[in-house]
Every structure is written in C-alpha cells, then in structure tokens.
Amino acid sequence: HKIQFMLLEEKTMDAQLNLDLLSGLTQIDLESQELFGLRDTMRLGVSLRPELEENVPSQTVSFRPRYILCNESETPIAIRQCYVELDTISYNSFGEFAAIHTVEDGSSIILHFHWPTLTETPYRIENFLRDAPITYYQKGSYVSENLGAGSIVNYVWDDLTLPHKLVIQSDDLHLLHEINLDKVRPWKPFRRNQLSRGLVYYGRLMGSDALKLGYEVYAVGITRVLRICELSESSKVNRISGRGAKFRLRISYFSIQLLEKTEEDVSEQSECKPIIIAKLENINWNAVSIDRYKCMELRIQSLSVDEKWAGAPFSAMLRQHRSEKSNADDHIICVSLVLLPLSSHVKQVKSLSILLQPLDLNVDEGTLMKLVPFWRRSLSESTAPRRQYYFDRFEIHPIKIVASFLPGESDYRYSSAQETLRSLIHSVIKVPAIRRKTVELNGVLVTHALITLRELAVKCAQHYSWYVMRAVYIAKGSPLLPPDFASLFDDLASSSLDVFFDPSSGFLNLPNMTLGKKK
Fold first, then answer.
1. Angle CA 173–176–177, to nearest 5
2. Residue 288 resides in a domain
3. φ, ψ (nearest 5 deg) of residue 172
4. Which of 126, 323, 414, 462 has the fewest CB atoms nearer than 10 Å to its CB?
5. Could you read off the pLDDT of 133-180 as tens digits, one per residue?
6. Which domain holds residue 438?
7. What's an example Gene Ontology biological process for this entry (predicted)?
8. Is residue 418 within a helix (H) or strand (E), and if so which, with residue range?
9. Nearest-angstrom CA–CA distance, 26 and 46
C-alpha cells in the first residue's frame, strides 16, 4: 500500500510513502528536480492515529509542516536559515530582547515568537567596582559597550553563532578577562599574569588588594547574573559551615507488589492477587557532607521484576542481562550526586551521573493491560513555581536492552483506557512481535543547565522515546525513521551531547572520557 503525492502548485516536488511501514511519527522530504546544481526541499511531518469513534476501525494519516513559526508579536520579523544570506541582516540592528518558546505538537515543531511579558532576560551584568567603569563585548564580535561603576545592565548575545563568552576590559585596572556566562560559579578573584586562561591583570591593584577583586556568576530565575565586585560585595549566598558528617544505609532486600482484585465467584468475597513483583537486593547508600560539597552514592546490586499473574507468558519481565563478560558482583544501578551546599533558591548540582547495566526486558500485552488501571494523572496541574536546579554536569550513560514483546488479543472487558493503549500499540506504533532484539539507547551529557526536575524528566523521556521508536522501525524492517532528532537541551544548557555506543562515526577525544560523543 504505497501512495505518491505532490504539491498542487509545484508538481515537480513529489514523494512516496508506504502506509504499511508507517508507525507513529515520521518525516518525509518532497524534493524538486536539480537545476543548476540546486534542489528545493520541503520537509513534512507525518503522523498516524486511529479513529476510535467510527463504527469501522480506520486510521488517519496527517501531513503537517515539520517546522512552524508563529509570530505572536505586533511587529513584522525577518526569517532566514542560519548561515544563509548573512549579508542581508545585521545582528546589531536589533536592540530589543524577544523570546521564542518551542513546543512539539505531533509531527511538528512550533516556535512561538513573542515579546516577553516579564522583564527577565537571559543575562545581567553588574559592575560593583568603585570608580572603575568597564567595557564588555562578546568574544569575537568586538562591538563593545561601556558600563559605569555601580551600574547594572541586561544583556543578550550579539551573535548566537559566536562563542558564548563575555570579554571584560578595564583600562583603569589594566584588566582583560573572558567569562563564561552560562557557567554558574561562586566568587573568584582575578589573578595576575595567567595568560593561558585568557587573563591579563596587572597595574593599580597589587598584592592582597588584587585578591579582593573578582567576579561571580549566579542564577536568579531564568537569568544568569555576572557580578564584578570585591569579595565583601558578592551576592549574599552563604556557605553552610560546620563539621563534616557521614551517613551509610544498607538494605539487603526490598520488594514492591502490584495487586489486582479478582471476582471469580460472586458469592465469595473478592481477593487480591499479584500481577508483578519488583525486587531490589543489596542497596548501598553512602553520603558524605563537608563544608564544600555534599557527596552521595547509590548502588543497587540486583533489580528484577517478575510476572505473577496466572497465565503470564514470561516469568521475568525485567532482569540484568548476563553474558560471558558479565561480572556477578557488578551493580545493576550506580548513581553518584555531588551538591554544592549553598543556601540559595537555585539548587546547585556539581554533577549527577547515572549508570545502568545491560537489561533483559520481556513485555507482553496482557501484562500491560493489567497495569493500565494503576496509571492516573493529577486532575489539576500545580501552578506553584517549581524549584530550579543548576547542573554543572548531568549524564546518563548509554543503556543496552535485550527486548522481547508479545502482542495479545482484544478482550470485550477492556476499559476505554485499555482500548486506547491497545490502539496505540497495534494501529499507531504497530509494534510487531519481537524476540530478543538488542536495543541501544544513546546516553545524555548536559553541562551548565538551569532547569527544573520536571523539565529534566520530560526531556529525557523525549530523548529515549525517539530511540525506542527508532528500534520499532528497525524491527519492522522499515526504511522510515522518526523525525530528525535535535538536541532537547540547547535552550536550557550551555552544551548537550548525544553519547552513543559506536564512536567510529564521530569520535571526539575528550579528557577522562572513553565513550563516543556527537553534538
């Protein structure tokens, strides 16, 4: 079942789509014939959804632009592809700060352009030096601006294609320094003659006076603030002082059971029988707190989920994958966390690392249907502001899963929620029967991110859902793929890397790292 379609106005642009291979979301390109070495391309997002309200089961295939930009301001804006026609628009011709909110709607990515209702900007510069104005500019642009002593100014980058570093210069103090505004850091003194770090400092302040002059970068809401000042005038973020402490927790066995009510005989009282049981063994939690850091480590040696309902096709739903290279003493989960013990409304995380050993995952449709009643979303979303976290480094190592999936049959006793899930499996994603298929989920490495825990969880879920959908396409032998993967953290972090298994196609030699990385 293949269809060929073309644009009504540009009939030279066409494409083919195999409906039998379509699952969930994908993208297709309509390309014109090559002319003078150039070819026009239109990218469309394609989605498949069932029509549950019809008497006859049917599916709807929707075509939408892959990218949509909505100008929600009252001012016309100019749009162009990055690095194309660079001479037509000057970055410095715009003197106002605008906001773009990016959302994913089905197979489309929608960019909402608007003037912000709040006065919060990405950056703010505070010059708390006494009788010493400064000059600042983005590294590489050399379009400088002045900021007087005791003055404050909001700031956005002049050119997003240049490095996100600010150069601070003061002729009175003979000061020249590069500062990464995305990296939150406590007050740090300027030191003299450290040329290797991009700093030249000498002149009027020498000795102990030079050590009193420095800078800090801290977060206020979505704004990162650069304050240039003496130590006594740094932001009032006090370190928690006191003696160091150690904490150790050992749990040899912990289990959770999910039960369902059965009514086999109406004359007898219904009883609860287990559906699945999750077991964790040898849980070790170590924590050390000192003046400078709070360090925590969680290790779980064994994790398993077993199916316990009568007629279950698999005995084990989740278990550590064992191979010839496996070590019986390896911990299946390792989590390390380093916090900066600062009393601030933004919680600062020095590093958070999550490592998961290879897993065997066996899923059947019958078990999924029994788990549906346990899913419940809150009836109302909380309007309270969520606490922000600054992650200096956040990483999830690549995850290897050996997966099996067994489809099931329909049941007239299914609820509407169960029918919706079944339709998603069979009509939208079209998951085939899978037996011991190796799935490699790329990891995540994010640096200098200012984000809430909910945003972090949602973006990680989107990251892994892309690879799960890709694995389904590969299992079906389909040449289609989900829509192009774009970094989900670019608008919230200084950098984000897609950490993958095979480094042969794009290896970057980074210090202390042995995994392949691709930006």
1. 125
2. yes
3. -65, -35
4. 323
5. 899 999 988 788 999 988 999 898 888 788 889 999 887 777 788 999
6. 246-261+272-323+330-374+386-482+490-501
7. protein targeting to vacuole
8. helix 416-423
9. 5
